[in-house]
Amino acid sequence: xxxxxxxxxxxxxxxxxxxxxxxxxxxxxxxxxxxxxxxxxxxxxxxxxxxxxxxxxxxxxxxxxxxxxxxxxxxxxxxxxxxxxxxxxxxxxxxxxxxxxxxxxxxxxxxxxxxxxxxxxxxxxxxxxxxxxxxxxxxxxxxxxxxxxxxxxxxxxxxxxx
Length: 162
Ligand SMILES: [Zn+2]
Known about the structure:
It is built from 4 helices and 3 strands.
């Protein structure tokens, strides 16, 4: 069991204090198919009463593989010919992640720009983050979800296991 981080961000909707509600189990798959069981804490906002699930660093919402594997596939570091990966993730899953990412690029750019304001003025902001950080997917997803944003899912035809 992997313990999640202790710091609780404020409510992404109203900025209020989040109160612990309960926890639920989630599976995080690693490259090669090994599984970790994570305990995800669920919170309720003291002000607006909205419910929020914690997002651990290693997870991308609605995806079972750890973010490192997903960004590895998107970056072309993890490929089907890797001995490590074998059938995990499979060809279809890799294709779906790439499709999901490319569909979300303008969305991600817009949301990071909104959150970070005028800190970043250059175009191709996402490309710069990808060059700067090995954990770019975790970073980007946390910025977006902790500020109340969401990414598009890939749609039913590409994402039967969401
Ligand atoms: Zn709130």
